[in-house]
Design a protein that fits this description.
CATH class of the largest domain: Alpha Beta
Distance between the termini: 47 Å
Helix content: 10-25%
Order of helices and strands: HEEEEEEEEHEEEHEE
Shape: globular
Number of strands: 13
CATH topology of the largest domain: 60s Ribosomal Protein L30, Chain: A
């Protein structure tokens, strides 16, 4: 019985890994009658990454002239904008310039972008979606800030996490606020491993601590792990992080 359970787990893990995609490629922009779609090609297949949004959107489009690290899981359902959808998906723009990454496809009949939270054209903020009220936080809480590969830049949502952590610490008169920084490894579908540069964990942690102090928390403890977190090819984006532990 035990060997049967082990075999089932192995088959489930193998199936889950088979649905995972982690690769470096040039982004492709496809125009539509509403908003642009962003795609990427890997091993002869096209994958849908997301659509153009504003700074508050969960998806932040990649940049032409740069390759991107795509980490995602194949989602069930029809193609979107001509590509297989990946959900969830993490997109990291690589710093090196690659002039070959410049493909822009015209709009085609029958290929449409999914619904957008904002109309076509520039916008600075999408309408807030109604959400159920959440229970107030109590006790020790840990807030997590995530990063793109080899980056310490904070997106809009991550800045909100830092602000929320500072507000909570002030509300409960926290006895301890500890910031912990990490860097990580990414396992590509080819088996290659990409390791974030040394010193990044410290820089991420120090940057967050500086933001917290600027938000009114003078006593912040900072630590970081120098060694890169290991990769498993499935949860790698979650390892590129800083945690903020707030203790009453």
């Amino acid at each position: 019985m035990r060997s049967g359970l082990c075999l089932c787990y192995f088959l489930f893990a193998a199936s889950a890994f088979a649905q995972q995609r982690s690769f470096v490629a040039c982004p492709v922009v496809r125009d539509t009658k509403t908003v642009p779609c962003f795609l990427a090609e890997y091993e002869g297949e096209t994958y849908f990454l997301g659509i153009q949004g504003d700074i508050t959107s969960a998806f932040h489009p990649p940049q032409l002239k740069h390759e991107v690290l795509v980490e995602g899981r194949i989602a069930e359902g029809p193609r979107v904008c001509g590509g297989i959808p990946l959900r969830p998906v993490s997109i990291s723009v690589l710093k090196e310039v690659n002039a070959a990454c410049s493909t822009q496809l015209p709009a085609e009949p029958g290929i449409e972008a999914p619904p957008s939270f904002r109309p076509a054209g520039p916008a600075s903020r999408r309408p807030e979606a109604a959400s159920a009220p959440s229970q107030p936080r109590t006790g020790r809480q840990e807030f997590t800030v995530l990063y793109g590969f080899n980056d310490d830049y904070l997106e809009y949502a991550d800045n909100q996490v830092v602000t929320e952590a500072a507000a909570y610490a002030q509300r409960i008169h926290a006895s301890s606020v500890k910031v912990s920084g990490y860097r990580a490894t990414t396992l590509l579908s080819t088996g290659e491993r990409l390791v974030e540069k040394a010193g990044l964990a410290e820089r991420r942690a120090q940057n967050i601590a500086t933001l917290l102090r600027g938000l009114g928390l003078p006593s912040v403890t900072v630590e970081w792990k120098s060694d890169a977190e290991p990769a498993d090819g499935q949860t790698d984006p979650s390892h590129r992080r800083v945690t903020i532990a707030v203790t009453p």
